[in-house]
Amino acid sequence: MKEKGVISTNQYIWLLFCIITSFATLHVPRLLILQGGRDAWLSVVFAWFLDVLLAIVYAYMGIRFPGQNMVEYSTTILGKKLGKIAGLLFIIFFLLVSATLQKGLSLIIISAFFPNTPAEVILITSYIVVGYAVLKGIEVIGRVCEILGPIYLASLIILFLLVIPEIKIDRLKPQLELGLYPSLSAVPVILSFIGVCIIMGMYIPICNRPGNGFIGKFIAVSLGSSMIILLTISSIGVFSWPQSKNMIAISLELARHIHIGDFFQRVEVIWLMTASGAAIITSANLIWAFSSGLSQILGLKAYKPLVIPSILVSFVIGITSFSSSLDLVNFAFYSLPIFAIIIETGLEMFLFITALIFKKSG
Amino acid sequence: MTIILIITALLICLIEGVPLIRKGMWKEFTTISFLLFIALFIQIGVKLGMPTPIDLIEKLFMPIGKMFLKRL
Asked: Is the CB of A319 inside 8 Å of chain B's CB atoms?
C-alpha cells in the first residue's frame, strides 16, 4: 500500500530535527559525556560528519529508486524473500527505538515531576497522542513538526543563552588531555541516536521534491547536532564533566539552574514541553514508519488498521523491558549503539553495494 | 496489567477487526490479530520468565558494547 500523503521539504527538515531534539533532551548527552569526558562535544562533530556521509547514501538510494522507500527498494535489490527480511529489520528497529524513547521519557518525567505516578500512566497518555497523530497521517505530523520544530529550536537556544553566565570555560580545559580516543570512542554512541534519521529513507518518496533529500537531512542534522553540542558544552561548563555524567537528564538540570533574580526561575516546564512534545512526535514518526513499512512488506491495502496494534506492541515492550532508569541506560549505552549501527549503516551499505554490483535501480 | 492488556487487545480486535472483516480485508485482519498476539505473548511470556526482544538484543550486543565503552 503506497502512502498517499505528501510532505514539503520544510516539513521534512523539521520532522528530522524533532527526532534529533527528542534524543538530545533525554539521556543522550549524559551517555556522551560519560564516554567522551570533557571532549564529548567533539564526538558530536565527528558523528555529524559521518551522518552527513550516511545521508549521501540514503539520498542517493532515494534518487536511484524513485518513489520507493527503504522497505520497497530492499525487495527490488535483494528479491522478495531477502528483501522482506531486510525491510522487517528496518521497521523492527524503528519500533524498538520508539519503545525505548517513550520508556526513557516516562522514567525521566516520573523521577523529576511525578514520583508517585506509575510509568504506565505516562506511557498510556503519550501513546494516545501518538496514536491520534499517526491515524491522522504523515501530512498532519509534518505540519505539526513545522510549527513545533522552530519552537523547540528557539527554546534550546534560549536555554543555552540563559545558562551562559553560569558556564565556566576552565571546566572545558584542558582540551584533548587524553588525546582523541575519548571523543572518537563516543562517536558510535551519538551516531546511533542521530542516525535514527535514516527514517529519511521512508520520507524521501513522499517528499514533494525528492531531490532535496540530502540537503534537507544536512540542514536537520546540522541544526540538531549544534543543539547537542550547545547542551554538552553548557553541561560541562556549568556542572563539570564528572558530575554531568551522573545526571539523568542534563537539559532538565540546566533548565532548573536558570534564574534571573527571584522572579524568573523554575523554567523546567519549558524543558518538559520540548522533551515530551519532541518524544511524542518522534514516536509518532517511528510508529508511522513501522505500520506503513509492515503494510508494504505484507502487501496490505491500508496501514492505518495496524497503527493501534503497533502502539500496543511498543507499549508492552516498553513496560516489560526496563524496570528502572539504570536498565534503560545500560541498554541505551551498551547495546543500542551496536544494534543501531548495524541497521543504520551496515544494512543500508549492504543494500547500496548490492545495488551497484548487480546494477539494480527503480 | 496483564488482564487490562488482554481486555485492550480484545477491544482493539473488535474495533479494528470487525470493519476489516466486513470489507473482506482478511490479510489486514490477520496482521492486526498477529500484532495483538505478539503483544500478549511478550506480556505473558515475561511473567513466565521468558526474555523480551530487548533482553535478546542485550544478550547479543552488550558484551560487544562493554568491550569498547566505559563502565557505567
From this structure: yes
Distance from CA of A335 to the nearest CA of B (A): 5
The partner residue sitting opposite A320, judged by closest CB among B15, B42, B61, is B42
- Mean pLDDT, chain A, whole residue set: 89
Residue identified by cell 564529548 is A40
pLDDT band at A1 (very low <50, low <70, confident <90, very high): low
Q: Is the pLDDT of residue A80 over 80?
A: yes
Structural domains in chain A plus CATH codes: 9-357 (1.20.1740.10)
Q: What is the pLDDT of residues A311-345, one digit of tens each?
A: 999 999 999 988 888 888 889 889 999 999 999 99
A135 Cα to chain B: minimum distance (Å): 12
DSSP B52: P
* Å between A294 CA and nearest CA of chain B: 9
ipTM summary value: 0.93
CA A148 – CA A127 distance, rounded (Å): 18
Cβ of A335 within 8 Å of Cβ of B42? The answer is: no
Q: What average pLDDT score do residues A32-54 get?
A: 91
B35 at the A interface (CB within 8 A)? yes
DSSP A40-99: HHHHHHHHHHHHHHHHHHHHHHHHHSTT--HHHHHHHHH-HHHHHHHHHHHHHHHHHHHH
Locate A131 and state its grid cell.
Answer: 496514536
pTM: 0.92
Exposed / middle / buried, residue A204 (Cβ in 10 Å: 0-12, 13-18, 19+):
buried
